[in-house]
Amino acid sequence: MSTAPRSARPRGWLWWLLVTVVATQTTLNLCRPLISYRSVALGADALHVGLITAAFALLPLFVAVPLGRLSDRLRRTAWIVAAGIVLMALAPLLLALSQRLTTVAAGSAVLGLGHLTFMVAAQRMIAQRSGEDALDRNFGLLTASAALGQLVGPLLSSLLLADASSGQGLGPQTQQALLVAALTAALGLPAVLGVWSATQPRAERGAAALPLPDLLRRPGVPAGLFTSLALLSAVDLLIAYLPLVADQRGITPAAVGALLAARAASSILSRLIVERLVQRWRRHILIMASTLGSAAALSAVALPVSGTAAMATALVLGGFLLGIGQPLTMTMIVRAVPVDTRGTALSLRLWGNRLGQVAIPGAAALVAGTAGAAGALWFVSAVLLAATAAVRTSAARRR
Question: What are the residue boundaries of the Major facilitator superfamily (MFS) profile domain, all occurrences included (predicted)?
Answer without folding.
Answer: 1-399
